[in-house]
Amino acid sequence: MEKTMTRFLSVLSISLLAIGTVACSSDAPGPQAQPVTQTVAVDPSLPTVTVYKTPTCGCCTLWVDHLAENGFATRTYDVESTAQIREQNGMPAKVGSCHTAIVDGYVVEGHVPAETVKRMISEKPDIVGITVPGMPIGSPGMEVTGRDADPYDVLAVNADGETEVYAEYR
């Protein structure tokens, strides 16, 4: 009897664990996906950053963490593709990356350091936004233990799609 009860409890707990895992493991957002808001050590003088990323992108999540660690409140939406968000906000596909953010009326594309986002917000340049095209090793969210960071530029994107260097990281 004791063996039967132990086996029953084992099967029951495994079944409950499996049900809980299935219920919590869906990465695909529904049609009314709710944002995840991070508010770790928020600086109230900084605007909220709205981030659009794919649900399975780990480096995008790390970039959002980087923003939060630097005082930004964030609201994150998982989407199938960021291309439409980029296009709707005037950011050319040629300077695209793996996630798109909107902050204070500007587009921030890719792994831009929080300090450069803060500079843009402070300076209020007449641009669409800033971007780090591609995914350079060592940029926020793309750090690799034991590997030096690659040099990269943050580009300012004008309304006509032209770019110029806004910040350099060496």
How would you describe what is shown here?
With 170 residues, this protein is an alpha+beta fold. The protein contains four helices and eight strands. The chain has helices spanning 2-24, 58-69, 83-88, 114-123; strands at 36-38, 49-53, 74-78, 99-103, 106-110, 129-132, 152-157, 163-169. It is globular.
Question: What structural keywords apply?
Answer:
single chain; disordered N terminus; 8 strands; alpha+beta; 170 residues; 24% strand
Walk me through the topology.
Blueprint: H1 2-24, E1 36-38, E2 49-53, H2 58-69, E3 74-78, H3 83-88, E4 99-103, E5 106-110, H4 114-123, E6 129-132, E7 152-157, E8 163-169
Parallel strand pairs: 2-3, 5-6
Antiparallel strand pairs: 1-3, 2-4, 4-5, 6-7, 7-8
- The oligomeric state is single chain
What gap, in angstroms, lies between the N and C termini? 70 Å
Q: Count of DSSP helices?
A: 4
Number of strands: 8
Categorize the overall geometry. globular
DSSP strand content: 15-25%
Q: What's the helical proportion of residues?
A: 25-40%
Instruction: Describe the main β-sheet briefly.
Output: 8 strands, mixed
Average pLDDT for all residues: 82
Alpha-carbon Rg, integer: 20 Å
Structural class: alpha+beta
Order of helices and strands: HEEHEHEEHEEE
Q: TL;DR of this structure?
A:
By secondary structure, this protein is an alpha+beta fold. Helices cover 30% and strands 24% of the residues. The chain has four helices and eight strands.
